[in-house]
C-alpha cells in the first residue's frame, strides 16, 4: 500500500496551531471533520504528528475508537500518562521500580502517573503542565474520533478539563498546549463547540480537505512508472472514479490494483474498469442503507426519517415529532414508544443512531445524510419494498 504524504497541509496546520497564522483560531483548538475512510487517522499520525515533532512539540495521540469498551476519559488520561512516563524516562522508571508513586518534575510538581485523570489523582491540567515542563516543549494533544468523548460523563469531564488546561497554559503569542480533535461527523463534533455549555464554545469545525488532484497525480506517476505501456494514463477518468468512491483511497487503490492485475484479462484500457468499480461501489453503499432502512419497524423508520430531516434540530418527543411519527405510521405514538424505537436504533449492530451523554441524537453514519438528500431531491424518498409481481389470477383466462 502506498502512502501519499501530505506535508504542505500538515505544515499549514502546524503554523495555524501555533497561533502564527494571521487569521483563524486554531490556537484555541483545531476541530477537523471528514467522512469515514477518507484518511483522517493516517493524516494525523503519518503527516501531522511528525510535522509537529519536527517543530519541537511533544505529541500525544489518542484514538477514542481504539477500544470502544473503555471510557473515553480514561483513554485520554492514559495517553497523556504514557507520554509523560516516556518523557520522565529513567527518573520515572527508577521511582516506580522503588515503589515511589510520586515523581517530582522540575522540582515543583509532584505527580502520580498512574492516577492522572482519576478523581484523587493529578488533574489533566497538572499532567499536561508536567508534560510541558519535563519536555521543555509545547504539547500537542491529538484526539481522534473526539465526538466519542461526549458519549460518557467522564469523557465530557475530560473535554472540559482540556479546555481549562488550554486556558491556563496558553497566552496570546505563547502557545504551550495545542489541541487537535478529529471526527467523521461534523454534526457530532459540533456538540463540542456550538452551545454555551459546550466545552469548546466559540470554536469552529473545519472540514479536513480530502485527498485531491495531487494524490491522483502521484498514483498516475506510479502506474506510468510500473506500466510504461499504459502511458499516458487518463488522470481525469481516475479523478472522477476517486470522487465516485467518495474520496476513499482504500477502495480506489483496490480497484486500481484489480484493474491492473496481470490476471485480469483486460482487452481494453484499465481506466473504464476503475470507473465501473466506483459506480458499483456507490450502488452497493446505497443498497446497503436501503436494505437497513427497509428492515426497520415502521416506527423506527419514522424516527430515523425525522432525525435525517431535522438534523441538529431533532427533538425526539416534542408534539411536532409525535405528530410526524403518527402521520407516518398511521397510529398514535407516545413518548415511551418513540423512546423504545430510538433505543433499538441505537442498540443495533451496526448502530444507526448515536446518543451523547446529554441525550442529543445524531445518525451514526453521516453518509446517510447524503443518501437522504439525494433521494429527497430525486423524489425517491422514502425507500419502498420492491413491488412483488401480482398473483396469477386463473379466472382471467
Ligand atoms: N495519504 C494516503 N495515501 C494513501 N492511502 C491512504 C492515505 N490516507 C489514507 N489512506 C488509506 O485509506 C484508508 C483509510 O484511512 P484512515 O484510516 O486514515 O481513514 P479514517 O478517515 O481515519 O477512517 P475511519 O473513519 O475508519 O477512522 C486506509 O486504508 C489508508 O491506508
Ligand atoms: Mg480514523
Defining traits:
397 residues; Rossmann fold; 3 domains; five-stranded parallel sheet; two-stranded antiparallel sheet; 49% helix; 10% strand; binds adenosine-5'-triphosphate; binds magnesium ion
Q: Report the β-strand fraction as a percent range.
A: 5-15%
What number of structural domains do the residues give?
A: 3
CATH superfamily of the largest domain: P-loop containing nucleotide triphosphate hydrolases
| Helix-strand topology string | HEHEHHEEHEHEHEHHHHHHHEEH
Whole-number mean pLDDT: 89
Q: Structural class, please?
A: alpha/beta
Task: Return Rg in Å.
Answer: 25 Å
The number of helical elements comes to 15
The CATH topology of the largest domain is given as Rossmann fold
CATH class of the largest domain: Alpha Beta
The neighbouring-strand order within the major sheet is 2-5-6-1-7
CATH architecture of the largest domain: 3-Layer(aba) Sandwich
How many runs of DSSP E, i.e. beta strands? Answer: 9
Q: What's the main sheet like?
A: 5 strands, parallel
Which ligands appear in the coordinates? adenosine-5'-triphosphate, magnesium ion
- Low-pLDDT regions: none
Structural shape:
globular
Task: Walk me through the structure.
The chain has 15 helices and 9 strands. It has 397 residues and is an alpha/beta fold. The chain folds into 3 domains: 7-207, P-loop containing nucleotide triphosphate hydrolases (Rossmann fold, 3-Layer(aba) Sandwich), CATH 3.40.50; 213-290; 295-378, Arc Repressor Mutant, subunit A. The strands form 3 sheets. The chain has a 5-stranded parallel β-sheet, with helices on both faces. Helix 3 packs across helix 6 (153-169), helix 8 crosses helix 9 and helix 12 (298-310) crosses helix 14. The longest helix has 24 residues, at 271-294. The termini are far apart. The model has no long low-confidence stretch (mean pLDDT 89). The structure holds adenosine-5'-triphosphate and magnesium ion. Residues 1-4, 6, 36-42, 184, 211, 249-250 line the site of adenosine-5'-triphosphate (ATP). Adenosine-5'-triphosphate binds next to helix 2 and helix 10.
Amino acid at each position: 500500500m502506498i502512502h501519499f504524504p501530505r506535508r504542505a497541509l500538515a505544515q499549514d496546520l502546524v503554523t495555524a496551531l501555533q497561533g502564527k497564522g494571521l487569521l483563524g483560531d486554531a490556537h484555541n483548538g483545531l476541530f477537523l471533520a471528514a467522512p469515514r475512510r477518507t484518511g483522517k487517522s493516517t493524516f494525523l499520525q503519518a503527516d501531522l504528528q511528525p510535522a509537529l515533532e519536527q517543530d519541537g512539540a511533544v505529541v500525544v495521540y489518542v484514538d477514542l475508537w481504539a477500544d470502544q469498551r473503555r471510557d473515553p476519559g480514561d483513554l485520554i488520561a492514559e495517553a497523556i500518562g504514557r507520554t509523560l512516563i516516556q518523557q520522565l524516562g529513567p527518573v520515572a522508571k527508577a521511582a516506580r521500580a522503588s515503589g515511589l508513586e510520586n515523581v517530582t518534575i522540575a522540582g515543583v510538581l509532584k505527580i502520580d502517573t498512574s492516577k492522572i485523570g482519576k478523581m484523587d489523582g493529578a488533574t489533566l491540567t497538572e499532567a499536561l503542565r508536567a508534560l510541558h515542563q519535563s519536555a521543555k516543549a509545547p504539547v500537542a494533544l491529538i484526539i481522534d474520533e473526539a465526538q466519542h468523548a461526549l458519549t460518557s460523563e467522564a469523557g465530557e469531564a475530560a473535554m472540559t478539563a482540556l479546555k481549562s488546561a488550554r486556558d491556563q497554559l496558553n497566552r496570546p503569542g505563547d502557545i504551550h498546549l495545542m489541541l487537535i480533535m478529529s471526527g467523521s461527523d461534523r454534526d457530532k463534533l459540533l456538540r463540542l463547540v456550538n452551545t454555551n455549555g459546550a466545552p469548546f464554545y466559540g470554536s469552529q469545525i473545519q472540514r479536513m480537505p480530502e485527498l485531491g488532484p495531487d494524490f491522483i497525480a502521484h498514483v498516475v506517476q506510479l502506474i506510468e512508472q510500473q506500466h510504461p505501456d499504459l502511458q499516458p494514463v487518463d488522470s481525469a477518468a481516475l479523478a472522477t472514479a476517486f470522487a465516485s468512491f467518495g474520496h476513499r483511497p482504500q477502495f480506489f487503490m483496490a480497484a486500481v490494483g484489480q484493474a491492473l492485475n496481470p490476471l485480469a484479462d483486460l482487452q481494453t484500457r484499465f481506466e473504464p474498469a476503475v470507473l465501473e468499480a466506483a459506480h458499483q461501489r456507490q450502488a452497493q453503499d446505497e443498497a446497503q442503507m436501503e436494505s437497513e432502512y427497509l428492515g426497520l419497524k415502521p416506527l423506527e423508520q419514522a424516527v430515523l426519517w425525522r432525525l435525517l430531516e431535522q438534523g441538529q434540530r431533532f427533538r425526539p418527543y416534542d408534539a411536532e415529532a409525535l405528530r410526524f411519527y403518527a402521520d407516518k405510521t398511521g397510529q398514535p405514538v407516545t413518548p415511551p414508544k418513540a423512546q423504545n424505537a430510538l433505543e433499538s436504533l441505537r442498540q443495533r449492530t451496526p448502530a444507526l443512531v448515536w446518543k451523547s451523554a446529554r441525550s442529543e441524537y445524531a445518525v451514526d453514519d453521516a453518509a446517510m445524510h447524503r443518501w437522504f438528500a439525494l433521494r429527497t431531491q430525486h423524489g425517491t424518498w422514502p425507500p419502498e419494498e420492491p413491488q412483488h409481481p401480482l398473483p396469477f389470477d386463473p379466472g382471467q383466462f
